[in-house]
Amino acid sequence: MSIGESLADARRQAGLTVAQVSHQTRIRESIIRDIEQGDFSACGGDFYARGHIRSIAGAVGTDPVPLISEYDADHGPPHAMRAADVFEPSRPIKIRERHSPSLAMIVVVVLLAIIGFSAYHLATRGSGKHLAAGSPTSHPSVHPTASARPSPTPSPTHSAATDVVIKVAATEECWVLLTDSNGGSQIYMGVVQAGTSMTWTEQQAVSIRLGNPGGVVLTVNGKRQATQTQLPVTLSFTPGSTSASSPADSTSSSPSG
Fold first, then answer.
1. Which residues pair with 217 in a beta bridge?
2. 230 contacts 213 by C-beta, under 8 angstroms
3. How far, in Å, CA of 34 to CA of 38, rounded?
């Protein structure tokens, strides 16, 4: 009885199927069937064939020693094993080789990188030139819209016709008396210091007396008045007028500036 027949007979007596033996021994079912038919070519060599015989015999409950002796008699005694015989399979495994990028592909990638860098460099230089040629400041000028512009402050020349605006700008110290021309009530009396000015806006006729007319600049409704005299002077103005209505010089005992 051959080795394969002995193993197959022992398996059937043990009540095992090829699949069960394969599950116990971790040997593929196709190899077990080949061994039972006397074909050891799928084992990958004598070393693996002897190991499969020993494993299958142990699974089916038969003595592997006479079976291995019979195998040695048919295929020759075992010889010294090289490390390559143990760790390399009898059937070489084809491994897909990873192909490195071709030289042409590398050249194309490098050229694209150079072109991209050059384009970026030119673009940044161009934007820098535009900035240099523009305004000296980097901040854009902002023009206020019509709604955002502040309304101009009306000057005395644009005051209402019912007002009289009097401004006294003193170059020298000057005593000033401002009264209501109609009732004679006092509006202001005091000294305007040199280098200062005072402004009054009244809605009735007024009279102003200057103790030192030559030391002030008198402006009525935006028009400068002639006050180049050293004697005290009294001038009267009506709303909307730019000249005295009834000028009168006086040398009374009023204090002078």
1. 169
2. yes
3. 6
Cα gap 29→217, rounded to integer Å: 126
d(CA 114, CA 102): 19
Enter the tokens of residue 7.
């193993």
Q: In 3D, which of 205, 246, 204, 237 has the Cα closest to residue 218?
A: 237
Q: Cα separation of 224 and 235, whole Å?
A: 13
- Output the pTM of the full model: 0.35
The first and second tokens of residue 163, run together, are: 């007002």
More confident residue, 135 or 104: 104
pLDDT at 125 over 80: no
**Interior CA angle at 252 toward 251 and 257, to 5°?**
75
DSSP 3-state assignment of 202? strand
In the chain, which ranges are continuous DSSP H helix?
3-13, 18-25, 29-36, 46-60, 64-75, 83-87, 103-133
The amino acid that residue 253 corresponds to is S
User: What is the rounded distance in angstroms from the CA atom of residue 32 to the CA atom of residue 25?
Assistant: 10
Residue carrying structure tokens 């401004």 = 167
**67: pLDDT strictly greater than 60:** yes
Q: Which uninterrupted H or E stretch holds 167?
A: strand 164-170
CA angle 169, 236, 210 (to 5 degrees): 40
Q: Which of 55, 63, 64 is nearest to 31 (CA)?
A: 55
Coil, strand, or helix at residue 219? Answer: strand
Rounded-to-integer distance, Cα 181 and Cα 163, Å? 14
Closest CA to 175 of 224, 219, 227, 215: 215
